[in-house]
């Protein structure tokens, strides 16, 4: 899954991690997803999702970077990386159903645990501070509204799409997200199938907390391949 993002701690410059440290390439990720239709009618459901991605790389800086209270000079060899863990719970209801389709909508919440770091020889003013690892992290809960659509032209093949969106300001942070996921599923056996999905996740936030006062704007996108189980 490809990623790109800009992170700006307080009193620091905006840093594009994907471009500055060449972290915009493909990374393997873990994605777990389940749906439980808990009503007898099958109209009501709850969906849970867990997704994570981490990337890090060593790079030679082409320009000076200010991060928190230290400076990493141009020409220095540093290591940098980011991490994201996403937790999603979504309660939904089917709005329109038929033999081959289903349209639904609902409310949910995304829990986004984001972190980033830079490590290497750092300077405070003109004096070397030696090897320093500077990192930031924040957990951001973002409620969302969403819709989904499912179309099954045959008993073996089905096509789906989900869209989540929200923007909010709560306490020490404000932020928003877009989460889009079209996909196709092939029901190879009675209870087992295979799926291909494309994921696009963009989220942004401004945070004013003691451990981190700053902002970030992150985008993750790419395909996923999975095995589905129906019970």
Description:
The chain has 231 residues and is mostly beta strands. The chain has one domain: Lipocalin, CATH 2.40.128.90. Helices cover 2% and strands 74% of the residues. The strands form two sheets. Strands 2-1-13-12-11-10-9-8-7-4-3 form an eleven-stranded antiparallel beta sheet. A two-stranded antiparallel sheet has the order 5-6. The longest helix is centred in the N-terminal third of the chain and has 4 residues, at 17-20. It starts with a strand and ends with a strand.
Radius of gyration: 21 Å
Would you give the CATH topology? Lipocalin
Mean model confidence by pLDDT? 85
Number of domains: 1
Brief description of this entry?
This protein has 231 residues and is an all-beta fold.
Give the helix/strand layout.
Layout: E1 2-9, E2 15-16, H1 17-20, E3 30-36, E4 44-60, E5 65-67, E6 70-72, E7 77-97, E8 101-124, E9 127-151, E10 157-170, E11 173-186, E12 192-208, E13 213-229
Protein name: Outer membrane protein beta-barrel domain-containing protein
Tags for this entry?
231 residues; eleven-stranded antiparallel beta sheet; two-stranded antiparallel sheet; 74% strand; elongated
């Amino acid at each position: 899954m490809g990623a790109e993002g800009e992170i700006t701690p307080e009193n620091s410059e905006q840093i594009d991690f994907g471009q500055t440290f060449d972290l915009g390439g493909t990374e393997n990720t873990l994605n777990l997803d389940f749906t439980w239709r808990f009503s007898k009618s099958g109209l009501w459901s709850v969906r849970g999702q867990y997704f994570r991605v981490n990337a890090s790389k060593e790079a030679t800086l082409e320009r000076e970077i200010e991060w928190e209270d230290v400076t990493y000079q141009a020409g220095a060899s540093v290591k940098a990386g980011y991490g994201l863990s996403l937790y999603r719970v979504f309660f939904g209801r089917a709005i329109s159903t038929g033999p081959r389709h289903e349209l639904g909508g609902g409310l949910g919440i995304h829990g986004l645990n984001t972190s980033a770091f830079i490590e290497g020889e750092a300077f405070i003013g003109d004096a070397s501070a030696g090897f320093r690892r500077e990192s930031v992290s924040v957990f951001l809960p973002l409620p969302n509204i969403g819709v989904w659509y499912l179309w099954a032209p045959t008993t073996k093949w089905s096509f789906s799409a989900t869209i989540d969106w929200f923007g909010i300001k709560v306490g020490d942070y404000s932020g928003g997200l877009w989460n889009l996921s079209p996909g196709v599923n092939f029901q190879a056996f009675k209870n087992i199938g295979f799926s291909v999905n494309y994921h696009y996740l963009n989220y942004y936030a401004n945070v004013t907390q003691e451990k981190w006062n700053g902002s970030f704007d992150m985008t993750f996108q790419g395909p996923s391949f999975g095995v589905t189980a129906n019970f």
